[in-house]
Amino acid sequence: MSQFKVLKSLVIDSLDTITKGSIKYHIWMGGLTLVMLIGMYCYFIQLDEGLSVTGMSDSVSWGLYISNFTFLVGVAAAAVMLVMPTYILKDIDFKQAVLIGEGLAVAALIMCLAFVVADMGGPSVLWHMIPGIGVFNFPNSMLTWDVIVLNVYLFINISIPFYILFRHYQGKEAMKKVYVPGAILSVFWAVAIHLVTAFLYQGLQARPFWNNALLGPRFLASAFAAGPALIILVLAVIRSFTAFRIEDRTIKKIALIVTVAAQINLIMLVSELFKEFYAPTHHSESAYYLFFGLHGKNALLPWIWTAIPLNVLATIMLTFGKLRNNLKVLYFCCFILFVAIWIEKGFGLIVPGFIPGPYGKIVEYLPTGIEIGVTLGIWALGAFVFTILAKTAIGIELGELRYKDKNSSAS
């Protein structure tokens, strides 16, 4: 049996599957397509007029794009919290959700790369990041390391689920000796992508707000809280609209991961606040700007004072098992925790690092409509990609998609 024929059949069956569905499914995909088109329109305006149409400036050169990039690196890394217990610890309760988690990681990584392209101004400058052609500056540049680890992690998260689904599509079991080594590698690589991203910020000496030894560990804690929280919400939607069954005990086990990570993240937040405000120095000005405003400038106050109470509320509610095991309460906690960490790890981390500047100048930043349009378009792209991946994977796992060998059936 030619593997190429099987692959061709899989592609055809997948295309047939993702183009069929209920009215709600078509409305969902149509809505995502509309948002993507709006995002493309905004991006074309940015390409035509340059980054001047954004709220970024020479003083604040990273804004909404890099904020989302940083957050989504964590969402992508969170898949390891399902990969490790499933493939390494052999916990069957996580097996139902691991392919969904890896599909979410792929979508998150695609969004990460899209946000980098948007922030660079356009795809025409990407050749600078190609080894041997552009100014790759390896191994000195942390940005170069970030590009490498993200692309390798994307390859790992595509190849392992593809192999497993490809075997299941043929009615065969995946061989552990093929995918387990890759799964083990992905565990270490997930930690690497987040630490390297944290080191990228920590290595900028002129930005004292990021010169924090807790930045890397806190990146991981927030990632393992927000990522699995999103996975729980996605699993809730899948349980409601598909025949793919996710047991309550699976969701409750993931919820325990979210709870522990959220508690650690909150402890680290308190530690950072103590360091900044108990014995403040001039290096604490960025933190003062973020939490209290500085010299009458306070654009980020509504953001951070929304994020912190939501973070605390979600963590406290999740800590009590009776509340956490109530699925409706759990979904609410996961949603507000996801929003809180998105704000805190996005606007609350990236923008204050530039304010005030190295010479004390205060230039505030708020995203423009163009930036918001591009950002929503990229999020819609990620949701579109994930929906396609999930619908195909669910079809294979339910046995609805199977390879039909015409030669063997004819004989």
TrEMBL record:
Look up and give the membrane topology term: Multi-pass membrane protein
- A GO cellular component annotation in the UniProt record: plasma membrane
| UniProt KW keywords | Cell membrane, Membrane, Transmembrane, Transmembrane helix
What Pfam families does the record tag this protein with?
Answer: NrfD (PF03916)
Q: Which residues cross the membrane?
A: 27-46, 66-85, 97-118, 147-166, 178-201, 221-242, 254-274, 300-320, 329-352, 372-394
Does the UniProt entry include the keyword S-adenosyl-L-methionine? Answer: no
InterPro entries on file: DsrP-like, NrfD-like
Report the domain of life of the source organism.
Answer: Bacteria
Major place of residence: membrane
Q: Where in the cell is it found?
A: Cell membrane
List the NCBIfam families.
DsrP
Q: What family does the Swiss-Prot or TrEMBL record give for this protein?
A: Belongs to the NrfD family.
Protein name per its UniProtKB record: Polysulfide reductase NrfD
